[in-house]
Amino acid sequence: MTAPTPPQGPAQGGPQGPQHFAPPPAEPVSQSSARKNLVIAGVLAGGGCLLVILVVIALIIYFAVRGGDSGGGGGETGAADLPPEEQATALVADYFDALAAGDAATALELNPVNEDMGAAPLPVEAYTAALEAAPITGVELGTPVIDDGGLAEGEVPVTFTVGDETVSDTYRVHDYDDDGVMELTGGHTMAQVPDGLDGLGLTVNGAEVTAGEPIALMPGGYEVALRAEHFALTSTDPLLVGELATSLEWPEATLTEEGLTAFRGAVDDAVQACLEQTTLEAGCGMTPVPTTSDDGWTMVENTVERSISEDTQRTIDTMEATPSSDEPTYVEGTSVGSVTTTIECTKDGQKGRCEMWLGGGMGIPNVDMADPELPVTWS
């Protein structure tokens, strides 16, 4: 009998050493799986970089906006950092650059028409037309004069050409709210629209304006026109605005040829109607026929005959008309002239035809040209 084979490994009852385990065999990885893993890792890494970039851009924009808002407007913040002399020069230069470029909108932003000026602004299209009619050229700025006592204010001399006229003027700047930023003040011509054009649909560069009220004008040329029927202006030349203190010579209202024909026709119709009246009293400003004469003759009602001479008729046919200064639609003519007047009269049983001395001449006709009926009154 042979002895049993002793067990392999450490002897029973002896000290145990550390146990060792072999790792399981790794599964084989295909090439396609490896490439897929690399792509996913690349996408994740790229997405992270893109997110970082977007965050950085957002922060830049945020702080840029915060920086612009903190000063009440980027332009004002920059202007406040400049000395008053440089601010004044830059402000007036920018304004005249806009005028020279025909950019009325920008010019109004730099030099707005404020309510406290007491003048009404025109639409921007009217100012654009003014700069087209009389362009601004040859602008030269002088040395500004600044008064730093109290709120800073100053003047900037300017020489420029508007249309064909050379102008030298001074534009005022003022830091009226003490924020360190100069602004143009009073930089417009205040023009009073004359009362003598009231009710005629007056327009300035196509914009209707109100007679008797001031309007604000920037340098340029302004065409004045009327929309009312029968009326025109004594001049069609544009109003040229150069100096701030320009005193405009407004044209006056007059009748067109068609209007004058209508006026004369209305007067003639009124005269003929008055001549047809047979009563002692008649219209057209004529003196009533007295009921008795100084020598005792009695006038008979409804027997009056009136007539005018050829010269008087010619006066009507060629009569000139003048719009009233305070109500231009009310147009005044000239005296018509004398009227020959005869009346049936009686005295102590006798009958005859009496003639009125000087005939009771007509007055001065006035026609309301705003009324389609063209009514005539007499003065």
The CATH class of the largest domain, by name, is Alpha Beta
Radius of gyration, rounded?
Answer: 48 Å
Please trace the helix and strand order, writing H or E for each element: HHHHHEEEEEEEEEEEEEEHEEHEEEEEE
Q: How would a crystallographer describe the biggest sheet? A: 5 strands, antiparallel
Kindly identify the CATH topology of the largest domain.
Nuclear Transport Factor 2, Chain: A
Helix % is 25-40%
The number of domains is 2
In the predicted model, the low-confidence regions spanning at least 5 consecutive residues are: 1-52, 58-77
CATH architecture tag of the largest domain: Roll
Anisotropy-based shape: rod-shaped
Strand content: 15-25%
Distance between the termini: 172 Å
Q: Helix- and strand-based class? A: alpha+beta
| Average residue-wise pLDDT | 83
Number of helices: 7
The count of β-strands is 22
Transmembrane segments: 38-65
Protein name: DUF4333 domain-containing protein
Region (Disordered): 1-30
Keywords: Membrane, Transmembrane, Transmembrane helix
Can you describe this structure?
The protein has 379 residues and is of the alpha+beta class. It folds into two domains: 83-250, Nuclear Transport Factor 2, Chain: A (Roll); 257-378, no CATH class. The chain has seven helices and 22 strands. Strands 1, 2, 3, 4 and 5 form a five-stranded antiparallel beta sheet that branches. Strands 15, 16, 19 and 20 form a four-stranded antiparallel beta sheet that branches. Strand 4 (165-174) and strand 5 (183-185) form a beta hairpin. Helix 3 (84-100) packs antiparallel against helix 4. The chain is rod-shaped, with a radius of gyration of 48 Å. Mean pLDDT is 83; it is low at 1-52 and 58-77. The chain crosses the membrane at residues 38-65. Residues 1-30 are annotated as: Disordered. It comes from Brachybacterium conglomeratum. This is DUF4333 domain-containing protein. Keywords: Membrane, Transmembrane, Transmembrane helix.
